[in-house]
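#struct-pred

JT: dropping the chains for the assembly here, can someone run the whole complex?
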Amino acid sequence: MGRFHRHDGPEGHGHSHDHDHDHHHGVGDLSGYATADDRVEVLERIFGENERVGALNRADLDLAGAIAVNMMSSPGAGKTSLLAASLQWLTERHHVGVIEGDIETALDAERLAGLGAVVELINTGQGFGGECHLDAPMVRRALTRLPLAELDLVIVENVGNLVCPAEFDVGAHARVMVYSVTEGEEKPLKYPVMFRCADLVLVNKVDLLPHLDVDLAEFYKNLARVNPGVDTIETSARTGQGVAAFCAWVSARVPAGAIRR
Amino acid sequence: MHELSLCGAIAEIVTRRAGDRRVQVVHLQIGQLRQVVPDALTFCWTMLTEDTDLDGSTLDVDRVAAVLTCRTCGTRSDLPDPPAFACVGCGGLDVAIEAGEEFAVTALDLIPV
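RK: done, full complex below.
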């Protein structure tokens, strides 16, 4: 979508037009009307720049014959453990890159090292409190450090957070949300934006179900309220349950010609 | 807590659109489905704009309620609380979000020269 802006001429005739091009309008654009009035109509989307860079990321991946999967969850839901459990299956069939987002430390990146994927770490900790999500420019910088031409699958492990990552398109082709059964049945209702944006919801840590009072049917009912028909797979990184099914779901999204053994 | 980076994006838009004029009020439209806390946004704006050309400018937030439209029967409805993305008319699940995802700078009030 192009930037949309509106301005009224001195005669008061309103007109609007759509721009399909993507360049930034310089301040020179304002000469016609800003000085005539003390109000400037803008109507510019705040995520516009992030979405522009996200689209560039997706285009670069497409050109390389690769897809990116954005994995999101609350802290501790098991993204890294699931990834570690999945990498053997995935790297036997694909050339995998992992972009690991963490506010601080290289701990998760170290856990994933040596499992057959190229791992690139993004620490978001610079600045005030650390960023709570990955945005498209951060992922773009990490993509340039990955040997993209040699990869067909890039997994972006986002910062653990159920709010902010859902707002930022990083240029991925699919969004996978990891929910763990210890988090309670009502999470989809409390974080509808996150659950609604997912293409796949992994219901993780199901090996713990015998020890919990969680009502999984209630969780699925709540999930259906915010994202009816979304794919779900029950998983346990500990027992391996559902891991192959998750890998197959991801693998099915990689362009067929790109699969290399 | 991504309000600080959002303020950075807002400041970029405002600075570019205001040119060499000083800004008094930045008008924003924020949909109900955007997970932005207006108070946190205002706090971050004050912090981020301090000692810049935007120092002293304020944010005016227009919250937009979420509205769903059923693609099957055409019924329009507000998003219920707790949320459910289904048609209140026919129960269909194929609903479009007609409003509630807005997140835009809509206008700037400039300080008269």
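JT: nice. The first helix of chain B runs from residue 3 to 18. Chain B has a mean pLDDT of 94.
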